[in-house]
Specification:
Amino acid/polyamine transporter I, mainly alpha, 2 strands, two-stranded antiparallel sheet
């Protein structure tokens, strides 16, 4: 999704030229996010209740695969690495076409009152309900029909994520540029990423046999990272995009079926240092250079034919609010939390750091602009080049800096892919799980479809078909579906809070706002495709056709889920198993 310079020229002419420097913007973000965590986040824990003495699902259902008791920072590393995909960089940079002020406002308001609340409440509800996913929570508190529809919605949504992010990562790893020449930073990033997978498995096996406390584990982790960076940069892997797509899907398959402790947790643990290092590099660069934001503060309520509402709110997902985060909170993180008091740090805290990363991306693109005109290239390229310049200021050779940042950026998407592959597999399995989960009591077709290998293969094959259209064709639909998922999750969580006797009205405004914005965005996408069929031409079934089918299916499923959920939420009395009221 390349940022067009010609669009920015018109923005410069129309925009408000209020001057803002990067350091001021960063300080505002740090103060606001810290206040959100320590004031609003802690208030939520008091309102809903935390029991530090409770035995969490990680201990109660420990199976060595999904339910694995893990340290506070290990769970945080998994949550943060999984939710921090391409969104915090891509979304704010694209949305900057409306000006930096509306982007900044949405990141702060959305991050504190929408996104972090959703992530934390999803984690909270899941931990209080045996580590069950959002879909299973909907079955318990809303009904089986609602559960089936939400699981189908979630599964379709995971296909969009797999398609978009697999294409992004494969493009980043492509060892050749448009002219066929070798692209060393891309190839080095690919080499480091492959080393990460192998080293993560070895690290997981080592920790399983020789458990370490946090400090020695931290030291070993940093040494391994430095070693992988050195080897990867010295020995880049030059393969084309098509080859990398197959490799990436093979990796997603591995991550979806292997035990959490063996691959995902150690890889996310190691990746978190890269991601945090990238954020720190950006923050330090802003502090030392204090760049001027060269973009206008506000352009207008419509830019290049795109209205600010709802486009801004579906373009910026990660960093403000993202439905995918709730699937991570309830799908994987809730099964590894060892103490309920860690949930605020993992759920709310990881979202606040992601919001800061999104602000850093906004500052970077604002500083990279010249006279209101943004540099040409994809958001990833703009971000990587700018942060690479920051690193080179501290004496790091430009070539190495570019390789490291390219690796960090690719890690954003790759750590999302391993989680979403596993979540997609779980959603598919739960779709065909009846009253019992015992394979011996299931019918033959249920045993086949709930088999984790079969479920993973079907999920990845469907994701691959969508991936063939390229991420630029999938991204707009993914953004709308992602935010719509957030609205549906917030509705379900509001029902959970009401049924269990907890206050949940703080979720009402976020869920209504996101529902209206996302349904409008999906209708706009459908209108655009239909217009292309009948008036513009160039309709392609593989891209436009599949997107049209998925968009219509998402809207229908969403409306049905809302119908069942809202009826439950505003019912005069809500019946639920007696044990649920004691949760």
């Amino acid at each position: 999704m390349e940022v067009q310079a010609q669009d920015k020229i018109s923005i410069k002419e129309r925009g408000n030229n209020f001057i803002m420097n990067g350091l001021t913007l960063l300080c505002i973000a740090l103060i606001v996010c810290a206040s959100g965590y320590f004031i609003y986040g802690r208030w939520l824990t008091k309102v809903w209740g935390i029991d530090p003495e409770a035995k969490t699902p990680a201990y109660r259902f420990e199976d060595g695969n999904d339910y694995v008791p893990s340290s506070k920072f290990t769970v945080f590393a998994h949550q943060f690495s999984s939710i921090t995909g391409a969104g915090p960089v891509t979304g704010p940079i694209i949305a900057a076409m409306f000006g930096w002020a509306p982007v900044m406002l949405w990141l702060m308001i959305g991050g504190i009152f929408f996104g972090a609340v959703q992530d934390f409440s999803a984690l909270y509800a899941s931990v209080k309900n045996e580590g069950k996913s959002i879909g299973m929570l909907i079955e318990r508190y809303i009904g089986k029909t609602g559960k089936q529809m939400f699981l189908l919605f979630s599964w379709l949504f995971t296909l969009l994520i797999i398609a978009a992010f697999a294409d992004i990562v494969a493009s980043t790893f492509n060892g050749f540029d448009a002219k066929g020449l070798q692209a060393t930073p891309n190839a080095a990033a690919a080499s480091i990423s492959m080393l990460y997978i192998v080293v993560a498995i070895c690290f997981g096996l080592f920790l399983k046999k020789y458990p370490l406390s946090e400090k020695p584990k931290l030291v070993i982790g940093i040494i391994l990272i430095l070693g992988m960076l050195a080897v990867g940069i010295a020995y880049p892997l030059y393969f084309d995009k098509s080859t990398w797509i197959y490799v990436i899907f093979a990796y997603i398959f591995m991550a979806a079926v292997m035990p959490m402790w063996l691959l995902m947790e150690p890889r996310d643990y190691l990746s978190s240092f890269l991601l945090l290092g990238m954020i720190v590099s950006g923050v330090i660069g802003v502090i030392f250079t204090n760049p001027t934001i060269e973009l206008p503060a506000f352009v207008g309520f419509e830019v290049s034919g795109k209205p600010l509402f709802p486009i801004l709110f579906i373009t910026i997902a990660c960093g403000a609010v993202s439905g995918f985060h709730s699937l991570v909170s309830s799908g994987t993180s809730s099964k590894t939390i060892t103490n309920e008091k860690d949930m605020l740090f993992v759920g709310y805290g990881s979202m606040m750091i992601e919001s800061i990363l999104a602000v850093v991306a906004l500052i970077v693109v604002g500083a990279a602009a010249t006279g209101g005109v943004m540099p040409k290239g994809t958001p990833f390229q703009i971000f990587s080049a700018s942060v690479g310049n920051f690193l080179s200021m501290f004496g790091l050779p430009r070539h190495i800096a570019t390789c490291v940042i390219t690796m960090c950026v690719s890690a954003l998407a790759l750590t999302t892919l391993d989680s979403v592959g596993r979540i997609g597999r779980m959603c598919f399995q739960e779709l065909f799980t009846s009253v019992t989960t015992d394979p011996l009591k299931m019918s033959l077709w249920q045993r086949v479809l709930t088999n984790k290998y079969v479920a993973t293969i079907i999920t990845l094959f469907c994701g691959y078909l969508l991936c063939l259209g390229g991420y630029m064709n999938v991204w707009p639909l993914f953004g709308a579906a992602n935010q719509l998922c957030a609205a549906l999750v917030l509705i379900a969580l509001a029902v959970f809070l009401k049924v269990t006797g907890r206050k949940g009205k703080m979720l009402y405004i976020p869920m209504c706002f996101m529902l209206v914005a996302t349904l409008l965005a999906l209708l706009m996408s459908i209108y655009g495709i239909v217009k292309k069929i009948f008036f513009v031409g160039g309709f392609a079934f593989l891209t436009d056709g599949l997107q049209l089918i998925v968009a219509i299916a998402l809207i229908i499923l969403a409306l049905l889920i809302v119908y069942h959920s809202v009826g439950r939420l505003f019912a005069s009395s809500t019946s639920v198993p007696s044990q649920a009221k004691n949760i």
